[in-house]
Amino acid sequence: QVQLVESGGGLVQPGGSLRLSCAASGSIVSINGMGWYRQAPGKQRELVATIPRGASTNYADSVKGRFTVSRDNAKSAVYLQMNSLKPEDTAVYYCHAQIVSREGYLTTINDYWGQGTQVTVSS
Known about the structure:
Layout: E1 3-7, E2 10-12, E3 18-25, E4 28-39, E5 46-51, E6 58-59, E7 67-72, E8 77-82, E9 91-103, E10 106-113, E11 117-121
Parallel strand pairs: 2-11
Antiparallel strand pairs: 1-3, 3-8, 4-5, 4-9, 5-6, 7-8, 9-10, 9-11
């Protein structure tokens, strides 16, 4: 069974930095797009950054120039380096991946989500 496990959240002061990590495991054949989303209290989940396999990255306007998404295909992992953090970046951050996996004789493509990691930016 495929799963995504996140790490790296926490409490940081405004202007600080955090690095989120997310690793996929299971019967993985390949991974297409990967990325990060976030959900603040009382708000809908929103895209933060995506990194398709072999294509250019995409960022929400609110994080451009401050956040950097990267991936390590050998480790089935995606990362989010967050710099110059602001209080409005406070949210639960979720990693996402579209994964091709093998289930017995079947090969399937599904969207998977991490369990979420809390990022709090406060003085």
